[in-house]
Amino acid sequence: MSASPFDSALYRGLFGDAEMARLVSDTAEVRAMMLVLGALASVQGKAGVIPEVSGAFLARAMMEVQVDPAGLAESTGANGVSVPGLVAALRRALEAPEHAAWLHFGATSQDIQDTGLMLRLARALALIEGRLVAAAGALGRLAEAEADTPVAARTYGQVAVPSSFGAQVAVWGWPVIRAIERLRDLRPRLPVSLSGAGGTGSMLGPDPAAIRVGLAEALGLADPGRSWHAERSLIAELAGVCTAVTTAGAKAGEDLLILTRSDVGEVRLAGGGASSTMPQKENPVAPSVLVALARFAAAQGAALSPASREARDGAGWFTEWLVLPQLVVAAGKSAAVLGEVLGAIAPDRSAMAARLGEPLGLIHAEALSFALARAMPRSEAQAAVKRLAGEAKRTGRALPDLVAETHPDLTLPPLTGPETLGAAPDDARSFASAARAIADGQG
């Protein structure tokens, strides 16, 4: 098995995501750092920190020069960071020492690498958000279409009370909306990093803050107003958002693993996976992927810490390199798979109705106990119905019949029809409305 199934030739059909992979590739990282170096030189040139002609030359050159990431491997291994090797390679490639001398002036490696990371994250998070918005729209449409479809709600793996399938879909959808809201809050706050070697910006010129603001404007990123070399709360927040995305997918995945079981069969999925030996199998591969990605993301996120040692922390930084790319790809893949799953869902209403209409009528025990509570204390009513439920299981007689016989003066509640679903249809439609709003950018 490859060290990372996300880019494994064998497993990429299961976990791979070509769009996300491009954003976390070595080529994308080098290109992003070059854009940062070029933008920094341009801003510094306009501010008079370096010769303006050199700033303009470097900004243009960083758009044109090509650097092979593989050629930086030895330097990165020796230095523990890729920027020194990159800057040296760029200066050689430029063949203009009078300008190249001003490249990376006053900044430190972490400034360039972290800002390049933010550029790539801005695109990655936008991609994830777009996928989640599409999934929320699909969930909203499904919830609305199935708002009045009766289905058995389950608690602790047991049939509990009547609900609606649309309301269950809404329960899958609300975490998706929350994840979208968190992404929309985080994306505008992705910051540049420009603090110099020790976080003081002392070599960036007479007004380091102005250079930082200019760099943020040039790159379309936020100005953090400070050094965040050793304060990694934003990275921890990013990990939390990625984990929330995968967790949202896992809720639908977990429930679909139950609803598609052979002995439940209330939902069918188009395009299930095949078994190597059992021809009848249609395995719920996509829901399993959703659950696995959430478990993976939770474990990965736990490795990151918002606290860093001293002015900069190499070990903490290295840990981010190991964890963040896979976390971001996991979130992107989860959002994509969720959208695919929703397009493959086919509810089996007859199977849902059969579950609700099981002969013993035990699903109505709660409603019957509350009806009986009008004639006796609540605790006694619950005990009475519990006793009769046991008798129903022993004798095979329906619980509603036993309650009616034991309490002939009791007016039984409706056991079929919309009244049995409570607020479930309204909950489904409320979510559908919220999903439409989030898709319109109003949520």
Automatic annotation (TrEMBL):
Residues 409-425 have a biased composition (Low complexity). Keywords: Isomerase. The keyword Isomerase applies. Residues 360-443 form the Adenylosuccinate lyase C-terminal domain. Pfam families: Lyase_1. Residues 399-425 are annotated as: Disordered. It comes from the Bacteria. One of its GO terms (molecular function) is isomerase activity. The keyword Hydrolase does not apply. Belongs to the class-II fumarase/aspartase family. This is 3-carboxy-cis,cis-muconate cycloisomerase. It comes from Roseicyclus mahoneyensis.
